[in-house]
User: Fold this.
Amino acid sequence: MTFQPQPADEPFAEAKQRWQLDLLYTDLGVVKGRGLTRVEKTYLRGLLCGYGPNEIAEQLQVKNDTVRNALSKGLYRYIEGRLSEQQPDLIRVESWGQVARLLGEAGYQRQLGRGKGKVPQRLYLDGLPDAPEFYGREAELAQLSQAIGQDNCRVLLLLGMGGIGKTTLAAHLLRHNQSDFDYVVWQSLAHAPAAEPLFEALLTHLLPETQRPTVNGESSLSQLLRLMKSHRCLIVLEDFQSVLSGGQFVGHYRDGYGAYGEFLRRVGEETHQSCLVLTSWEKPREVAHLEGMGGRVRSHLLQGLPNAAARQILSQYQLTNPEAWDDLIRPYRANPLALKIVATTIRDLFEGSVDEYLNQNTLFLGDFTYLLHQQMARLSELETIIVKHLATVTTPMSLADLKTSIFPKRRQSEWIAALESLHRRSILETRHADQKLLFSLQPVVMKYVTSQLVTEG
Assistant:
């Protein structure tokens, strides 16, 4: 489809690429009772490009109140009138951020790259894995697809221990839903790129310079957010924990990386039609604070695979004694990476005999040790004390037991904060018994910590 070029001096002309402006001008003019003025058309295009009233005023060099009054008394009312013709429920336009979403839902967006089988306008997939194997998470994929689709979730965090399958699920989520978005990004944060240069690089890949009108002094973060308001974008940031700080309670950013937190906060709070997906070992504090706001910000904790899916993984390694496989799966909590590592060892060292391996009465970690070492190295001093203590006891401990054993001289707020931090790292296991909340470690974590204690001797 080709578009007629707009006059070079027409503000916000890029709206023509995404919106059926002539139809929209006509329909709103019918509600008004006469055609929209040139100024009203300009304000409307600005809103559809993701600009707020203040930004429009700055671009056009008029007073903020001039734009706000024209919107509240004119365009917002025309849009309400037009939408009321399509559905019986009363719709109120109270914020500029509603305009693009409401008009998009009313069918005024051009259908570019939308719909199954089509492709987005722009793709930037830095480090997207092939991830061909997909075991036992079909229901989760369907649930998360609905979240980023029909539910208009703004921020979705895939949280869990290393090796649990966050990256695989995120990759399938992107591939399953990319045709519903105009711009699609996969960006690894494994090497902790600085925020502003990364945002600038994403904009460069997604939009030619000629399509990036900016307000004077506008940051690349604000430009990216405006793109997320004017277009439907799916942005996946993998390994978000890489920009978070170790050695203190979870959620703090490394020095110089606070812009990532600002980006998360604004994406979660501001109105737009896009979705930001994160994978992380740890829950950022912005997600923790914004969760529950009408489902716009969500976290999804990945647990181990269903038993049938875990057995499907083991079946690929020529293992014998299938009746004993459940005893192998259980202590690894069906972590797919851990299962692949131990299955390889059983195949190569024990000629595939699961019984022979289980007779060794040990929990082998192998290459999984390195991943656990990375996660444990991020703990604060108090978290490390808790983990080491839990690794030395044979039964789960209650809050009261923990306080008596290792917190007698600590303020209550300190140890509650430490336990909350460990919980947000997906390291603790919790269960209720006799009306008490009990804490313990995952078996692989306990094995790693006890091995470290022996080494430290």
